[in-house]
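Repro:
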Amino acid sequence: MEKSSENQKKLSIYNEIEDAPVLVEVTPLVLQLKIEKGRKQFEKTVRNISTKIEEVVDKWIGIENKIESVAKEIAPSNKEISSGGIYVIVSGMAGLILTRKCTFPIRFVTPVITSFAASTYFFPETHQNIRNMAWRYYQARFKS
């Protein structure tokens, strides 16, 4: 029994009575209010800018998707473009060389016509795809 009375006499390491928290109301300074107002305005501006950037990126991705779908629609199924492309470019340059001493309209139109004619020969499937797409565009835009 003697030991139990000694244990009871030992003080606890914790306070038995907890102090109630004291709330101190501090009024903000004028500088604090101005900094808070500026920070909120800055956050609003940053939020608006990030929204605009997201809109531009979304629009750009939409444009990329449209271009990709058009390229897939135009491209031939066998995907051999490099050899025929060289022939089309050479024919356009040949048209330019043949008309180098002619007037400007002829010099401008002849390479386009020779390249177009070469593309019909070297890229028949691609040429047909472009014609079909142009026809659909014409029907959608100009026919009522």
